[in-house]
């Protein structure tokens, strides 16, 4: 893809082009979100709808690697996400 | 400032970033939410015994350390016997 | 500024604020400022049995920096308006 044809010149352009599409968001504290992106700002504060949150709960029992832990999922209709917790935003995979 | 003005001279509950709960009378604040609280008492929660109150005196608390400030309804507060409350301390803030 | 404006349009609506200490507080949004500090009225802490600390608190000020999420009333959010405003703000940002 030629960057000039997609209009992507800087990182935030990638997020701008994901508006009204489903995105994947990785957050601090072993949390992940999938939701439809409706707004963002320069702090990476986000507003998402139809959100599913996945929290990875790792039981730190004697530091073994096989204790994969459990995941907790929940759904939220409309969610503001504070930008300081955002690690990455991934646009929808385009087929 | 999402103003603290309404809390001046009121009894408030202060929840700090490290999870400490302090009650006192809000004497003043500034735009960075640094606050001055008089007649401070720390409320120590535990699962083994009732709530312990430790008098601390006059505090100036830096805004960065504050998680939440709540106005205390004295009628409700006085109606509960702190020695009967069993609870874990509030979890510290984790970024 | 955009997000600040969104919160201002939601004044007097019920929201649920989830803090970075895992406390969830539902209440009526009374005001918000440029730091996204939030004032809530008629608050209720989720799982009050585990969190009796705020029993006597009916309204509170939450520091913006300790907020993880705010669950918003979807029926009061115009998503088309949000996306247009976000594109407009992004365009202004890149001009600078």
Automatic annotation (TrEMBL), chain A:
The keyword Plastid does not apply. The keyword Cell division does not apply. SUPFAM superfamilies: Sm-like ribonucleoproteins. GO terms for cellular component: spliceosomal complex; U4/U6 x U5 tri-snRNP complex; U6 snRNP. It comes from Pisolithus tinctorius Marx 270. PROSITE patterns: SM. Residues 10-95 form the Sm domain. It comes from the Eukaryota. The gene is LSM3. This is LSM complex subunit LSM3. GO terms for biological process: mRNA splicing, via spliceosome. It is found in: Nucleus. LSm subunits form a heteromer with a doughnut shape. Its main location: nucleus. Belongs to the snRNP Sm proteins family. InterPro entries: Lsm3, LSM_dom_sf, Sm, Sm-like_LSM3, Sm_dom_euk/arc. GO terms for molecular function: RNA binding. Binds specifically to the 3'-terminal U-tract of U6 snRNA. Keywords: mRNA processing, mRNA splicing, Nucleus, Ribonucleoprotein, RNA-binding, Spliceosome.
TrEMBL record, chain B:
GO terms for biological process: mRNA splicing, via spliceosome. One of its GO terms (cellular component) is precatalytic spliceosome. Residues 1-75 form the Sm domain. One of its GO terms (molecular function) is mRNA binding. PROSITE patterns: SM. InterPro entries: Lsm8, LSM_dom_sf, PTHR15588, Sm, Sm_dom_euk/arc. It is found in: Nucleus. Keywords: mRNA processing, mRNA splicing, Nucleus, Ribonucleoprotein, RNA-binding, Spliceosome. It comes from the Eukaryota. Its main location: nucleus. Transmembrane segments: none annotated. Plays role in pre-mRNA splicing as component of the U4/U6-U5 tri-snRNP complex that is involved in spliceosome assembly, and as component of the precatalytic spliceosome (spliceosome B complex). The heptameric LSM2-8 complex binds specifically to the 3'-terminal U-tract of U6 snRNA. PANTHER family: LSM1, U6 SNRNA-ASSOCIATED SM-LIKE PROTEIN LSM8. Belongs to the snRNP Sm proteins family. LSm subunits form a heteromer with a doughnut shape. This is LSM2-LSM8 complex subunit LSM8. It comes from Pisolithus tinctorius Marx 270.
From TrEMBL, chain C:
GO terms for biological process: mRNA splicing, via spliceosome. The keyword Chloroplast does not apply. SMART domains: Sm. One of its GO terms (cellular component) is P-body. It is found in: Nucleus. It comes from the Eukaryota. This is LSM complex subunit LSm2. It comes from Pisolithus tinctorius Marx 270.
